[in-house]
Amino acid sequence: MTSHDVRDMLDLPGEAAPRPAKKQKVAAPRPVLKGLAREVQNLGGDNPIAIVPEVSVFKKKRFGSRKPAAKWENRSFKNSARDDETLVLKHWRRKDESSAAPSGEGEAVAQDGGVVEDSTFAKYNVKVITPQYDDEQYQRHLQDNNWSKDETDYLVSLARDYDLRWPIIWDRYEYQPAINLDPETAEVAIVAKAENRTLENLKARYYTVAATMMKVHKPPESMNQAEFNLLELMQNFNPNQEKSRKQFAEAAFSRTKEEAREEESLLIELKRILARSDKLAEERRELYARLEAPPSTGNIGVFTSSQGLQQLLHQLMQADKSKKRRSIMGPDGTSPAGPSGLNQQPSFDRRESSVRESTSGPSGGSNNKKGPAQPGPTERRQLAPEEMQLYGVKIPERIPSSGPSFRSEKLQKPITSKSSVQQQKMLSVLTELGIPHRLIMPTIAVGESYEALLGGIATLIDQRKVMEKIQGEINTIKEKKRREEEERAAKMSGFGGDGVGDDRDVKVEEGEREKSAAPSMSDTGGQHKRSASVLSAVSEKSTKRQKK
């Protein structure tokens, strides 16, 4: 079968199109990778394998110094931190170094005519400074019935050896008192057992010895701040408190999970109580600040009328309600119950006129049978007589016509209603009695007593005024009578004649005296009438005030 037959079967044209020219591949020069097999390199195809060829680069030759090599020698040295003075050690050192030790590395120690350097690590052997004392100082300052000098020396030596590590000192403490017995009676002698010392006893004894010797060697007046603080710390050591602290720590480590939870709940409750006490203290301070506030220097004439008092009461109620609203809302201005307003209870003020309690019973609704009764506000609890007396609650039979008034205004009214002179007199009497002009705690009982006291002071001042006026009139009349008696006695002593002319002259002089005395008597009578009217007016005022 030829190609023509195939084209006829496939309905293809008889003439075949010329074969397209073959596309020549342009092969880029491929990098030659040394050290890689040809098969592995051909796997990459047209994309060559990304392998960085290794370039063999040798390091440059490092030339040392042209100086000759250093020489070393095995040099001897000692360690002053060791107790053995005869111990001599050796180590390698450069030969060009000086025979003496370099600065900061150790001290040179002379031995057998040569110089032996000290170890560089001897400076790290820091020892604790313990108290030093002799027999005389111990007998004078450090005697104790429970401690002997040998045991005290043993304790100080242990503290020096173990660097005041008290658990190790207490563990190694094995003091045995020295006993000198007669060989003949040694078998039957009774030896007292060494006393068992606790860790707190060892600390207390050592701190007592150290503080005492510190004051002996250097008076406290010449000590610096660090030394004086150390002295106070050692003197104030309390072994009983240290023992109780350890017992408390041991009990805290050995407590159970239930006890830990209970302690945590108690701590939370304690924090809550402290927070509440802080809040109460802040409110108490605010109340005291209001009570002790100085009197206002502004104009109070606006609030003297009932309308002004009503306006002031309305302002105070608005300020109180805004303050309560701010305390109920959260810090961001929203309710703490959530944005949806669920579980919120409507708050109301008993002083609001729009909120009234139901008088028909707890249900809060009338006898309406069409629907269920709406829940009304809870019934107000009645106060007991003791509570009413405690809180100062009074239920008046009727509201006074002047409207509500403040208790402070009622207490100041007996003083402000008087003249300035009488006000000064009343305030001076209060100062003399030691009573403040403005009460600090004006309760009901204190207010009643204060009001009664002011009424008594006003009555006494009025009575004193009337008494002084009457006493002045009495003194005037007495003085006038005394002068008349003196004049009459003088004239009687001057009458020595026995004729008719003398009698006539006496009668004329008596008539002239009566005429001259007539206006004065009328004036005196007028004065008596005026004093009687003033007395009656004052008595009527005092009677009305007492009745009121």
From TrEMBL:
Its main location: nucleus. Gene3D superfamilies: Homeodomain-like (1.10.10.60). Residues 120-214 form the DAMP1 SANT/Myb-like domain. Keywords: Chromatin regulator, Nucleus, Transcription, Transcription regulation. InterPro entries: DAMP1_SANT-like, Swc4/Dmap1. Residues 358-372 have a biased composition (Low complexity). Residues 1-10, 479-490, 501-516 have a biased composition (Basic and acidic residues). GO terms for biological process: chromatin remodeling; DNA repair; negative regulation of transcription by RNA polymerase II. Residues 1-30, 318-380, 396-419, 479-548 are annotated as: Disordered. It is found in: Nucleus. Belongs to the SWC4 family. This is SWR1-complex protein 4.
